[in-house]
Amino acid sequence: MEPSDITLIVASAATALGTLALAIITGIYVHLTRRLVQMQSDPCIVVFTRHDLAQPSSILVVIKNIGHSLARDITFDLDERIPEFVAGVTEKDAKYTGKVLSDGPLITGIPALAPGEERAFMWGQWGGLSHWLERKAVGVTCHFKRGDKLLPPTRCVLEVKSFENTIAVDTDGARKTAKVLEKIEKRLSMLARGHGRLRVLAEHPRVSPTKPWKRRGK
Fold first, then answer.
1. 43: number of Cβ within 10 Å
2. Contact 59/48 with Cβ under 8 angstroms?
3. Using CA atoms, how far apart are residues 208 and 60, in angstroms rounded to an integer?
């Protein structure tokens, strides 16, 4: 075999290997790109705790779809059973009835949640929950589907320790608006029962003395 033939064979093999490597890299790139696009359009279910702005000492459990498409057949696995409700503004005031959570969305699941949609329920007050949890967190695994496809589960925690020394503020002014409406309702009720007087002030338009009124045409 001539040296030129050997060189040609080596060059051909190198070209073939290069082409194969490029094809593999391209395939991996396409797969990762497709997966990235799917992840950006997938639903994502999370569970967390937050202040109740209407009752700042109370803690809510919130289930929310923070993804970009409809989540279906949502179920949850709790690492341990949690109380239905624990009262107590401080840990010394903790009052637990002994009832564990046995119904509601965290137990029975949710058929579907649209993007941005949520479910929330009252869990208790900070002091009582902090005493019951002993400043620990309870793990929650969220299972859900996109269409008929089961997606990888998300792992969340329920905790109240982070709320210590924090302030819940009604930023949207809903409570102030409610108080104003309540005052208006009471005033109208008093008027309807005849316990108050509705005063109407009528003012006549002023006529300038420097410009006397004249009949048209004269």
1. 22
2. no
3. 65
**pTM, whole model, 2 decimals?**
0.63
Closest CA to 65 of 89, 81, 41: 41
Q: Judge contact between 71 and 192, C-beta under 8 A.
A: no
Distances (CA, A) of 135 to 7, 13, 96, 126, 129: 73, 65, 16, 11, 9
Determine which of 3-7, 65-69, 137-141, 145-149 has the lowest per-residue pLDDT on average. 3-7
Q: Which amino acid is at 101?
A: L
Q: 138-158 burial by CB neighbour count: b if 16+ within 10 A, else e?
A: eebebbbbbeeeebeebebeb
Could you tell me if residue 194 is left (phi over 0), alpha (psi between -120 and 50 degrees) or otherwise beta?
left
Cβ count within 10 A of residue 160: 23
- Rounded distance, CA 130 to CA 86, Å? 9
Cite the beta strand spans of the chain per DSSP E.
45-52, 55-65, 71-78, 86-87, 95-96, 110-113, 118-125, 138-146, 149-150, 154-158
Q: Give mean pLDDT, residues 32-47.
A: 73
pLDDT mean over 135-153: 94
Question: What's the pLDDT tens digit per position in 146-200?
Answer: 999 999 999 999 999 898 887 766 556 666 677 777 888 877 777 776 655 555 5
- The letter for the amino acid at 175 is R
Mean of pLDDT values over 141-146: 97
From the list 43, 133, 25, the residue with the least C-alpha distance to 88 is: 133
